[in-house]
What does this fold into?
Amino acid sequence: MGFTIEDQSITEVEVKGFMGDCLRLNMYLRTAGRVLFQINRFRAINANELYGKITSMPWENYLENDGTFSVTSWVRNDTIRDDRFANLRIKDAIADRMVKKTGARPDSGSARDHTVIHVYWVEDKVRLYFDTSGNTISKHGYRKIPFKAPMSESLASSVIMASGWDMKSSFVNPMCGSGTLAIEAALMATKSAPGLLRNNYGFMHLKGYNEGSWKGYKRLAGLQKRETLDFKIIASDLSGEALRAARENARIAGVDHLIEFEKCDFRETPIPKDNGVVMMNPEYGERLGADKDLELLYSQIGDFLKQRCQGYNGYIFTGNLDLAKKIGLKASKRIEFFNARIESRLFEYQLYQGTKRE
Ligand SMILES: C[S@@+](CC[C@H](N)C(=O)[O-])C[C@H]1O[C@@H](n2cnc3c(N)ncnc32)[C@H](O)[C@@H]1O
It folds into this structure.
């Protein structure tokens, strides 16, 4: 999106920008959880010092005194045993400042559908942010019907991006469940911004929010969107219930006309005669050996990829690295992911016609 990355870690990317940039990031980011806008950084050794520094900030310039706000935090400080205590002191500090300057205090609660203030406090280092997303943007607003163990929407799009799929060739998603991978593929290929499906963000509740500017981004994103694709996206599952969920979710996402749904065993999934990506997210048990059926399933997946998907790149996303060995094909890439706390992998298999040398 044209930003220079100032810093990054396993869970964060830091860029420089204005509030307007946060609107743009919220509109277009597919793989993020939230967009935080830093408003202050300082040092505080205990909760009293934190309270004092927060009350000295001009909250009346940012918040409406008849609005609602919530506080989230990440605290690692020896004087704090319970994060909730830190949150309470932060809320009090903001509310006390508002009362002093405006004569009224905004409501506070735990819902994130209004103004959200995020505090990062590690040792004596404090950083204060507006969480401009509010509720997480890892949800893309279309999955009204989940099915068994759905992938988060942002994880699904991250996995597709990591595969390097060119968005010009077939995308086949056997075992589609609630359809997240196929729907994300269609949204990416049609350049449909995830923000188009959502109407409430944290930034909308800040003083000075420029509605016209958000509408402008929305209009622009709408113009960029394509309605048709000249390749196939196929989603299949054995379960009728899964397919009903997938179809409905795709309809809400506005991409149901771009996905061919098939109710079948994964081995019967139609594979177009060109090339592209076959991506699957099979179930996985806790430990190897716990489930013989799953071991058989993974070896059948290996056979399916080898026999029916020649010319394609095959991808398996799983949280069970031992079961993945049962696929029995040599992976050309293994990309690490965390699915919440579960260490997972995206395995890539290059499915040549014949041997590699041929
Ligand atoms: C872990 S879920 C996939 C979740 C999906 N990625 C999502 O985001 O909703 C695995 C799916 O595989 C399907 N499944 C299991 N065995 C199958 C088989 N032999 N053929 C086709 N689908 C199968 C299940 O019905 C289930 O929907």
